[in-house]
Amino acid sequence: MAASDKPSNVDLDVIIIGAGISGIGAAWHLGQHHPEKRYAVLEAQEGHGGTWRTHRYPGIRSDSDLFTFGYKFKPWMGKPIATGAEIQQYLGEVIAENGLGQRIRYGHSVVSAAWSSADRRWHVVAMHQGQAHRFSARFLFMCQGYYRHDDAYRPEWPGMASFKGAIVHPQHWPEDMDLAGRKVVVIGSGATAATLIPAIAKQSAHVTMLQRSPTFFVTGRNADALADTLRQLDIPPAWTHEIMRRKMLADRAAFTRRCIAEPEVVRQELLEGVRAALGPGHDADVERHFNPSYRPWQQRIAFVPDGDLFAAVRDGRASIVTDEIESFVPEGIRLRSGQVLEADLVVSATGFKLSALGDVDVSIDGKPLDFAQTVAWHGAMFTGVPNLAWIFGYFRFSWTLRADLMAEFVCRLLRHMDDKGVDMVMPMLRPHEQHMARLPWVKEDNFNPGYLQRGVHLFPKQGEHAPWVHSQDYEWDKEALPRADLEDGSLSYR
Questions:
Q1: Comparing C-alpha atoms, which of 36, 38, 41, 39 is closest to residue 21?
Q2: Looking at 323, 350, 377, which one is the last position of a domain?
Q3: Confidence grade of residue 4 (pLDDT, cut at 50, 70, 90)
Q4: What does pTM read for this prediction?
Q5: Do both 66 and 91 map to the same domain?
Q6: 367 shares its domain with 314
Q7: Are 458 and 440 in contact (CB under 8 A)?
Q8: Are 405 and 473 contained in the same domain?
Q9: What is the mean pLDDT of the chain?
Q10: Three-class SS of the chain
Q11: MF terms per GO, please (predicted)?
C-alpha cells in the first residue's frame, strides 16, 4: 500500500508538513532520536523535493554549496554547486536509504490545523484527491518553506495585454518551451536570472537581462581544491564532508564579517572579480550594471559558477540593461529612457510571494491565529502557539544548516517533555518582558531584498534580547539553540 493510500483519521505523535529539504531532514532526525514516535510527513506535491520539484526552469541549480546545503548526516559527493536534478537525486537517496518513503503521504495538501487544549492535540485536515483526510498529533512541525509555490510574484506593468509575445515566470516554466531563434528579455537580476540566462542563451537568438538595479555577483570555479585532494587520497566520504562543511562555514563567516566591517573594500573586490570575468572593454558595464547601492550582503550575493553568466555576456549571446519599465508595447518593452527592447518572450524573474506557515488556516481553541502578532522564541516557536515549531532558514548561510539545528532542537524538546511528563509547551513572555519592544522578523538594515520587504508584515516579531532574538546568524544559532534553556520560564508547560 502506497503511503498516500493509507486511511485517514490517524492519531500521531508528530506531523511534519512538507517533504522538501526541511521536512525530509526533520523526518530523518525524528527517526534517529525518537524511533518510538509515530509520525507522518504530509506533502502537497506528488513527490518529494519542494523547491527542487516545483522549479524546473532551464539551468536550475543551488546558489549555496552542497557541503553546507546538504545534510550533515549525508555526505555530498559532487561539485560544490549542484543542479536541481542532482539535488533531487540526493534527497531521494536520503528517503530510500532511511526508509522514509513509508512515512510520507504525497498529494496531501494541508488546509487547516486547529489546536485543542481540551485534548492537547493538533487536528489537521489535508485534501487528497478531492477528499478531506483528518489527522491529529501531539506536535506540529512546519517545514513548508517560506514562499508560495503556486503563486509567483509578478508586477503588473502598463500595456502587458498589448504584447504580442509570451510572458512566463520561472516558477511556472512550461515544459514544452521552445527558445530556438527567439529574442528573450529576462526581467530581474537575482540568483534565478543569473542561473536562467546562461542556460537559455545557448538556445535563443539573444537574451537581455533587464534590471531596475544591480546585484552583487561573485564567481569562481565550480570545484574545490581541498575536496578534490581529500577525495584523491581516499579519505572517507563522511570525513571529507565534515572537513568541507567546516571550511565552507569558516570562509562564509569570515566573508560576512568583512562585509559588515569593511563594506567598501569588499565592494571593490566583488567589482574587480566581475571585471576580470567580463574581460577588457567592459569597465563602464561593471560600474553601471554590477554596482548596487546597498552594501554587500544586505541582499543576497549571487554565485556564478565557472563564470557562465559573464561568458554569455562576453560572447555577445547575452546583454544587460539597467533601466525601468515604462510599459509593454506590441514588439517588446519600452523603457524610461525611451529605448525599446524587442522580445518574442519575456521572463519575469521578479521573485516570489512570502508565505507564513504555508498559508495553512491555523487556529487555537477556535480562534484564528494572527501569526504576525506573536513573538518568536529563538525564531523557532511562537508566543500563544502550543506544540508547534517552524523552520525558517538562513539568507546568508545555507538553509539546511538551520533545518538541521531546528530538527535536533525539536527532538530535544520532545525528549524534555517526555521526561517532565507533560504534553503541552508554549513560549510565553515573562512579566519583565511584557513591554519589550517588538521588532521585525528581520531588520531592514540587516537584510532587505524586495520579497522580504513586501511580506515581512506577515511574520512574527522578535524581541530585544534572547530568547526572543531571531538572529539570522548561524554562528550564533549553532551555540545558542542546542544550549537553549528549556526551564528559564520562557516556556510554559502543562
A1: 41
A2: 350
A3: very low
A4: 0.94
A5: yes
A6: no
A7: no
A8: yes
A9: 94
A10: CCHHHCCCCEEEEEEEECCCHHHHHHHHHHHHHCCCCCEEEECCCCCCCCHHHHCCCCCCECCCCHHHHCCCCCCCCCCCCCEHHHHHHHHHHHHHHCCHHHHEECCCEEEEEEEECCCCEEEEEEEECCEEEEEEEEEEEECCCCEEEEEECCCCCCCHHHCCCEEECHHHCCCCCCCCCCEEEEECCCHHHHHHHHHHHCCCCEEEEEECCCCCEEEECCCCHHHHHHHHCCCCHHHHHHHHHHHHHHHHHHHHHHHHHCHHHHHHHHHHHHHHHHCCCCHHHHHHHCCCCCCCCCCCCEEEECCHHHHHHHCCCEEEEECCEEEEECCEEEECCCCEEECCEEEECCCEEECCHHHCEEEECCEECCHHHCEEECCCEECCCCCEEECCCCCCCCHHHHHHHHHHHHHHHHHHHHHHCCCCEEECCCHHHCCCCCECCCCCCCCCCHHHHHHHHHCCEECCCCCCCCCCCHHHHHHHCCCCCCCCCCEEEC
A11: flavin adenine dinucleotide binding; N,N-dimethylaniline monooxygenase activity; NADP binding
Instruction: Report pLDDT digits (tens) over 17-58.
Output: 999 999 999 999 999 999 999 999 999 999 999 999 999 999
- Within a domain: residue 326? yes
Claim to verify: residue 374 and residue 456 sit in the same structural domain: yes
Region 102-116: what's the mean pLDDT?
97
Q: Are residues 411 and 287 part of one domain?
A: no
Cβ-based neighbour number of residue 162 at 10 Å: 11
The CA–CA distances, whole Å, from 447 to 220, 405, 451 equal 24, 21, 11
* 271 touches 286 (CB < 8 A): yes
Pair (272, 383) in one structural domain: no
Q: Are 59 and 196 in contact (CB under 8 A)?
A: yes
Encode pLDDT of 395-441 as tens digits: 889 999 999 999 999 999 999 999 999 999 999 999 999 999 999 99
The model's confidence at residue 65, banded by pLDDT at 50, 70 and 90, is: very high
Cα separations (Å) of 368 from 89, 385, 414?
A: 39, 11, 25
**Confidence grade of residue 151 (pLDDT, cut at 50, 70, 90):** confident
